[in-house]
Amino acid sequence: MANGLIVPVILAGGKGTRLWPMSRSQRPKQFLALTGDLSLFQLTLKRLADPARYDKPIVVTNAEYRFLVAEQAQEAGVELEAVLLEPVARNTAPAIAAASLIASRNEPRLVHVLASDHNIALDDAYLTAIDTAAAAAREGRLVTFGITPTSPATGFGYVEAGEKEATGAHHVARFVEKPNEDRAKEMIASGNYYWNSGMFLFDSSVFLSECRALVPDVFNAAEASVKSAHEDLDFIRLGEEEFAASPDISVDYAIFEKTTLASVVPSPIQWSDLGAWDAVWKESPSDDNGNVTRGPVNLFNAKNSFVLSEGAHVAVNGVEDAVVIVSEDAVYVGKLSDAQDVGRVVKELAKNKDTAKLTEEHRTSYRPWGGYSSILQGERFQVKRLFVKPGKQLSLQKHHHRSEHWIVVRGTAEVQIGNTVQMLRENQSVYIPQGDVHRLTNPGKILLELIEVQTGSYLGEDDIIRLEDTFGRA
Question: Are residues 20 and 142 located together in one domain of the fold?
Fold first, then answer.
């Protein structure tokens, strides 16, 4: 192996729904700051900033999240080896196979596969588990991490540890699907069952050999998609037709449950998949009554509850076991103990055309140059707040169906309309007629904020004709 360092492969393409209304398909939970100032993805990157163990990470995501990945990695001060873009969702087996091929282009490497949205304490127990898994992987084992269970959780799969190996890992006796509570209690009482964490560590050559032997359709699709991949700015786009030919299958089903090389490292680490609001509540500091609050919140006579607000002031009185989540444009109220039901609620909302948008988009949408918030919308008008990062610019564009008025409220704007370029400062405005080619740039050192008033017969985001774009979207 090249330098003995482990190559992290971070899977960051998921679209979790059980943390709605905060997590939505356009900005899912891995990119949200749920436990502090950093997003879960950034916390994952920080955990891997260990030059004695890890090389630069490879991130697997999709085109929709590519700029979020790049931006948050830059904010965290972490340099990435590569960002692979899945053209279609095909579950974890082909994604990990493609990443392993990229990681081992020159020679076999140790690969650590991990999710982007788990909360893990970086302590001695964690580092010991990583070193044990690496030792087993160097012996040709495909290693999964078994989390020491703290409760008979029914939302996780389990793995049974068998014979102990010289490295300290154990042969995998078997994997168990999500059990009912009674069965989970029995397994925990036996002392040799662990939560299946979804983290893996292996030698890339061993993994790819098993992938080729056990699921050749997955291997062939991944290999072909890597061969036909092309660079797009700082990203690598896997071949769409080739990748789409892969079966939609998880790495657990495809390889780990079939191979004879599977090992498990019992890992008594502080770990949570933060899969629902009750998990976030458990991972957060609480008051003397077991309450967790975020944002402008007041509680009265409340116990064991979680209340979060993004803006509106929330007062909650006389509740227990409650979860109240107030986003910019939606509110969820339910029992904290029924937090797993949020996913079902989102599915029902997605079926209705009047509420489906709430499961996909936030009122604030993020773009590689900044973003915008929708403030007010009428029959032939719309008001937005635009924010543009220092040094960034929007695409050179035009609209067929709308005109725009821009009013600068903070910072300095460079505005191009046709062949004319002008500078606007606070309290100055400009009018962009329908059909005129235009571009907005922030040449300053602080965030540029504008109020945009759109008028016209059609105000959809798809009425943008990009003629030139810094971010490759033209």
Answer: yes
Residue 354 lies in a domain: no
Same domain? 229 vs 82: yes
Give the count of domains, the chain: 3
Handedness of CA 238, 23, 284, 297 (dihedral sign): positive
226 lies in the same domain as 289:
no
Q: Are residues 182 and 258 in the same domain?
A: yes
Percent of the chain's residues with pLDDT above 70: 99
Residue 451's H or E segment, with its range, is: strand 448-456
Q: Which domain holds residue 409?
A: 364-468
In this structure, are 49 and 67 located in the same domain? yes
Asked whether 378 and 453 are in contact (CB, 8 A), the reply is no
Sign of the torsion angle spanned by Cα atoms 54, 56, 62, 66: positive
Residue 103's nearest CA partner among 243, 231, 208 is 208
Rounded Cα distance between 419 and 72, Å, is 35
C-alpha 391/C-alpha 189 separation (Å) is 58
| Domain-embedded: residue 1 | no
Peptide bond connecting 21 to the previous residue in cis, omega within 30 degrees of 0: yes
Residue, of 225 and 471, whose pLDDT is higher: 225
CA distance 251 to 16: 19
> Distance between alpha carbon 301 and the CA centroid of its chain, in Å?
36
The answer on pLDDT for 311 being more than 90 is no
The 3-state DSSP class for residue 285 equals coil
Whether 111 shows a pLDDT value over 80: the answer reads: yes
Judge if 383 and 321 occupy the same domain.
no
Dump pLDDT digits (tens) for 418-454.
999 999 999 999 999 999 999 999 999 999 999 999 9
**In this predicted model, what pLDDT tens digit does every residue of 187-216 receive, in sequence order?**
999 989 999 999 999 999 999 999 999 999
Rounded Cα distance, 308 and 325, in Å = 5
DSSP state of 253: I
Which pair of tokens denotes residue 434?
A: 């329908």
Instruction: Give me the half-sphere count of Cα atoms (radius 13 Å) on the Cβ side of residue 291.
Output: 20
Q: Where are the beta strands (DSSP E) in 58-169?
A: 58-62, 82-86, 110-115, 119-120, 142-147, 158-164
**Structure-token pair, residue 172:** 């995998």
Q: Provide the CATH number for the domain around residue 108.
A: 3.90.550.10
- Which structure tokens are listed for 431? 């009018």
